[in-house]
Amino acid sequence: MGILILILINIVCPFVALMIVLCFLISSRRSVLKTLFSELKERFVIKKQDLDGPCIWLHAASVGEVKSVANIAAELKKRYDLPILVTTLTKAGQRAAQKIPAFDLCLLAPIDFYLAIKRFVKFYKPKLLIIVEADLWPNMIYASAKAKVKIGIINGRLSERSAKRYKLLTPLIKLIIPKISFICAQSEEIKKRYVSLGASKKKVFTCGNIKYDALNENPNRLDEAKEIINKLSWQNSKIVVCGSTHELEEKIIFSSAKNLKDTKFIIAPRHLERVKQIRENLNKTQFQFSFLSDLAYPPIDTQILIADTMGLLGALYKVGTLAFVGGSIDKKGGHNFLEAAILKKPVFFGKYYYNAPDVAKSLLKSGGGILVNQTNFSKELKKYLNDENLLNTSAQAALNTALSFKGATAKSLEVIKL
Predict the structure, then answer these.
(1) What is the DSSP letter of 415?
(2) Domain spans of the chain?
(3) Fold for the domain defined by 222-404
(4) Cα separation of 241 and 301, whole Å?
(5) Does the domain at residues 37-206 carry the CATH identifier 3.40.50.11720?
(6) Do domains 37-206 and 222-404 have the same CATH topology?
(7) Engineered SS bond to 315: which of 79, 122, 225, 252, CB 3.0-4.6 Å?
(8) CA dihedral defined by 166, 169, 171, 173, rounded to 10 degrees?
(9) CA-based angle 291:335:163, to the nearest 5?
(10) Which of 337, 275, 272 has the alpha carbon at shortest distance from 90?
């Protein structure tokens, strides 16, 4: 039955891909398709790139996953003396991978179509496929296993909702899960979910989240962030840095800014393709605002800065007073709470933190995290901004919590075997 479902997936795959493209064309994120035609050779594995197998193949979804696996890639390269091939789902992820010395070839991931994956494996002859985090692509796993490629998952993330969805395809899951040799889960709870899908208890290990090992108390580009604050004349201001935001959360932030006129806000949207929409929304308000991309002559008394650039969020958290992490009031599961916590900032977030429930609960328990919603957002911000002792106590608790989550890289490397 599992094979029949896999065959059906391969039949409908081209039509689904076309529908996704059409959906992007009518969405605010349509600019992500501007390089579509140049990507097709990689997506459909039309031509072999300059890498001779055998190799170790790492598959990472996007920028965060790519960066988190860099140290593991370097260690595996040294341990087995094999080149490292990395594939990513996004163009941004590919660009980030190309900057990491441990990676020998960085490609966009082939479409999860059996013939494309089979050709990919034939071209590059991987001895080991390591899937980072959550992508259980059935053709990738099945075709690789058929070619006798050893398969593992590191930093395994499996939400309760995803586990329930996978169980709707139980025959297919029973076909592919046994082909995975090891799974390094982020938490004990996630380990249990993999086991509930049919993974052997002997093959699933609780290792923690390797992303947290990359947490840096001294972020890159800090001088640049300080210069931005100077340019805006915010040196003596209280600054709320809002990272990875979505539209609903930005509306809440704008509303709060009206009530906190002496407080400055930095908003780093999750998707930069939405910048035009954010500008339109701000034009409807009475705020003085600036965009980081055109900060040469910022308006006097700027209250809101839109950080429409990549790679600066950590440094902005560092120069801020406290942080709000998005995707948590909007129902996206929450983004990286510890990126702000490691910089000794109280972390505000909403109740939708299912992407990292262990982190969120630990932050809340320690007092380093503060739960907010549309109703109490302004009130909670004001309480912490006006109480220095409370602010400092929460900041120290956030840092202590972040430090407690390190160590997953070493644990994962103990599990990985070629």
Answers:
(1) H
(2) 37-206, 222-404
(3) Rossmann fold (3.40.50)
(4) 17
(5) yes
(6) yes
(7) 225
(8) -30
(9) 145
(10) 272
Cα distances (Å, whole numbers) of residue 37 to 13, 123, 165, 184, 374: 18, 22, 32, 36, 41
Per-position DSSP letters for 387-409, written without gaps between them: -HHHHHHHHHHHHHHHHHT--HH
Tokens 């891909």 -> residue: 17
The model's pTM? 0.74
Q: Which of the 8 DSSP states describes residue 386?
A: T
Tens of each residue's pLDDT in the chain, 418 residues: 878 888 888 888 777 766 766 665 555 555 555 566 667 778 888 888 889 879 999 999 888 899 999 999 999 999 999 999 999 998 889 999 999 999 999 999 999 999 999 999 999 999 999 999 977 899 999 999 999 999 999 999 998 888 998 888 899 999 999 999 999 999 999 999 999 999 999 999 999 999 899 888 999 999 999 999 999 999 999 999 999 999 999 999 999 999 999 999 999 999 999 999 999 999 999 899 999 998 888 888 999 999 999 889 999 999 999 999 999 999 999 999 999 999 999 999 999 998 888 899 999 999 999 999 999 999 999 999 999 999 999 999 999 999 999 999 999 999 999 8
Q: Which amino acid is at 98?
A: Q
265 pairs with which residues across the strands? 240, 304
**Virtual torsion, Cα 132, 328, 372, 399, nearest 10 deg:** 20
